[in-house]
Each structure stands twice: as structure tokens, then as C-alpha cells.
């Protein structure tokens, strides 16, 4: 993992994530697929040690825990069309294991609205073999 | 660590951080003090394995690595007075070790300006005995 360029990963991930989000967000489940594996892993731990699934998405004031609820929430968002425009993207390595922290700020256009809304989104990406998956995701609209 | 309320930690940390930042930011070094220990640890690793200090602050377009540069940057910011107003604060557990991820959005007033500027800031807090310290910090102003 030491040869990974975290800025490049963050850039590629963010581009891919918003392209999928804006074109067909039913496919976003693939990016969270490891949540299912993690969930199974945690389920085994629940049976043996009592620990809970701590994976989370915060979307505005909604906090969702566990793979199934996260994917359902993203797919069920109440709009037909959405377009993300990234203004800033900053990444930092977040652990010696190869975790990456990403802060995105930008604008989004929903359905037929012409005034974009500003948003901030923080991703915590974990390495998974030669790839990465979304472990933490916090999204907030920025109201003036 | 399992009995820690991550929302409460995030709230207390953020309140304390901005109070210090707005009143006397020379004291912020204390919150990053463990960076020095981490730096010494990494220095040992540099000597033995060639790894670098990966602790980082991103402040607008500046990326700073290592304890000394981070503290110097915060102390040298070119304004006399600053006031942070938090609009949203969301936290998530970021690892089984007790890491906490915090996304803050808000407004800040600098010196004698009357129009607040919007900002987003992402903190990655690591447990350190019974306390926490700032491991990652990404700050961005949100321009319209």
C-alpha cells in the first residue's frame, strides 16, 4: 500500500462516486459492497463478543448504521435528477494501514432547480485488497 | 473505550477547539501535542524502516506535515480576531479502536468584517489514554 498516491485515489474515487450518483445511484451499492462483508464479519463478532455494526452514513440529520440501511437511503432520496459540481477536494492519509480521509465541498443542482445548493461531504475510505470502499460518509447541505 | 459517547466527545472537542482558536490560538498546540510524540515515533521508524511522518493539516490550499509545521501554521494565520459559529456538527465512529470522524460546517467572522464566511472542517480524532487528540484536520472556506 505504500506506493498508493492518496490524492490520486481520492480524486478518482470522488469523480466515480458523483458520476454514479448523478447518472444512476442504484449502482452506488457496489461502492458500499464491502459493508455487507463487514456486516457479516461484525455479525459473527456479535454472536461471539456482542459488538455492533458501527459502519455509518450521516445524510443531513439522518444517521444510518449498517450496509442495508445505507444503500436503501441513497437509492430512496426524493429527487429524479441531480448534478454534483466539486469546488474543492482535499485528501489526507488517515492511518498507517492506507485509510484515506477526503473532504469535498461543492454545489449540487436538484431536478429542475436553477439555483445550486452548496454542500460538504467527508469520506473515510478503507483499503480492500487493491481497491478501496466507503467506510464513513457524512453529507451536509450548507445553508446561508 | 466502548463506553465513550462519540457524539458527546465530538461536541466537547469542537466547543473547546473553537473557544481556544477564537480566544488564544497559541494554546492550540496542546491539542496537537501528541503529534510530537507521534513525530518522535515516526522518526524512529524513519531511522529503522524509512517511513515518513504522515500526520497532516490541510488549511485551504496549504498542506502541512508534521507537528512543528502544523502548530506554526495555526499560530501564524494573518488575522487578529476570529469568531467561529458552528451550524452543523456530525460525528461517526471511524474504527474499532475508538477513532472519531467529525464534520463541522459553520461561519466565521474575521477581524472587523461584518459578513461571515462559510467554512467546512473535518477532524479525525484519535484516542490517547482517557483523552483524544487531533490526528487529521482539513479546513476549507466555502465560496459561492
TrEMBL record, chains A, B:
**Is Aminoacyl-tRNA synthetase given among the entry's keywords?**
no
According to the entry, every stretch annotated as the NTF2 domain falls at 9-141
Q: Where are the transmembrane segments?
A: 29-47
Q: Does the keyword Protein transport apply?
A: yes
Q: Which UniProt keywords apply?
A: Cytoplasm, Membrane, Nucleus, Protein transport, Transmembrane, Transmembrane helix, Transport
What function does the entry list? Answer: Has a role in nuclear-cytoplasmic transport of proteins and mRNAs.
Protein name in UniProt: NTF2-related export protein
Give the species this sequence originates from. Answer: Komagataella pastoris (Yeast)
Provide the organism lineage as a comma list.
Eukaryota, Fungi, Dikarya, Ascomycota, Saccharomycotina
Amino acid at each position: 500500500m505504500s506506493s498508493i498516491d492518496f490524492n490520486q485515489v481520492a480524486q478518482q474515487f470522488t469523480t466515480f462516486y458523483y458520476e454514479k450518483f448523478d447518472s444512476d445511484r442504484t449502482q452506488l451499492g457496489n461502492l458500499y459492497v464491502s459493508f455487507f462483508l463487514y456486516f457479516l464479519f461484525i455479525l459473527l463478532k456479535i454472536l461471539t463478543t456482542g459488538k455492533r455494526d458501527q459502519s455509518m452514513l450521516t445524510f443531513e440529520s439522518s444517521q444510518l448504521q449498517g450496509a442495508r440501511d445505507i444503500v436503501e437511503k441513497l437509492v430512496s432520496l426524493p429527487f429524479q435528477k441531480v448534478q454534483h459540481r466539486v469546488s474543492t477536494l482535499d485528501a489526507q492519509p488517515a492511518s498507517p494501514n492506507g485509510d484515506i480521509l477526503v473532504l469535498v465541498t461543492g454545489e449540487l443542482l436538484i431536478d429542475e432547480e436553477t439555483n445550486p445548493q452548496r454542500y460538504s461531504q467527508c469520506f473515510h475510505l478503507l483499503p480492500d485488497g487493491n481497491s478501496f470502499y466507503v467506510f464513513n460518509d457524512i453529507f451536509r447541505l450548507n445553508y446561508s
